[in-house]
Amino acid sequence: NYQTIRLSEARWFRGWRGDYEDNDELSLDYRVLGAWVVGRELYPRVDRRIRLFTGPALTFERYADAGSDKGAEVVLGTALDWFQFTLPELDLSTQLVLFPSLSDRRRVRGKFNIALRWEIV
C-alpha cells in the first residue's frame, strides 16, 4: 500500500494510491490497484488527523484457477491518526477503505488497517 497526497490550505487534498496484494487462501496470485483520490481533512489538530477520501480506481487481478481480470472500482475511505508527544509517546493509525466495483455491481471489497506504536521506556 502506497499513498501520496497534497494538502491545500483549505484542508482539501488530492493524490493517488497504489496497492498490491496476493492471497493463497483465495487463489489470488496478485491484485494491483491504482487510484486517484480527493478528500478532506476534518478537525485538524497537532495531535489528531481525520480524513475522508474517495476516487476512481483501476484493478488488475490474476487468480490461479480463473485467469486474469481487470475492472473499475470506487475508493471510499476514512483514516484516523492520533499522536501523543508526551512520554510515553503514542502513535495510533487506522484506515477503513471500501472498494465497490463499477464492473460487477454485486462486488464490494474492504480493507481495515490498524497500527500502534507505543514507546514504553
SS-based structural class?
A: mainly beta
Strand segment tally: 7
- State the order of secondary-structure elements, H for helix, E for strand: EEEEEEE
End-to-end distance: 30 Å
Instruction: Compute the average pLDDT.
Output: 88
Helices and strands in order:
Blueprint: E1 2-7, E2 12-23, E3 28-45, E4 48-63, E5 67-84, E6 90-100, E7 108-118
Antiparallel strand pairs: 1-2, 2-3, 3-4, 4-5, 5-6, 6-7
Structure write-up:
0% of the residues lie in helices and 76% in strands. With 121 residues, it is an all-beta fold. The chain has a 7-stranded antiparallel β-sheet with strand order 1-2-3-4-5-6-7, with no helix packed on it. The chain is globular, with a radius of gyration of 17 Å. The two termini are 30 Å apart. 11% of the residues are buried. The model has no long low-confidence stretch (mean pLDDT 88).
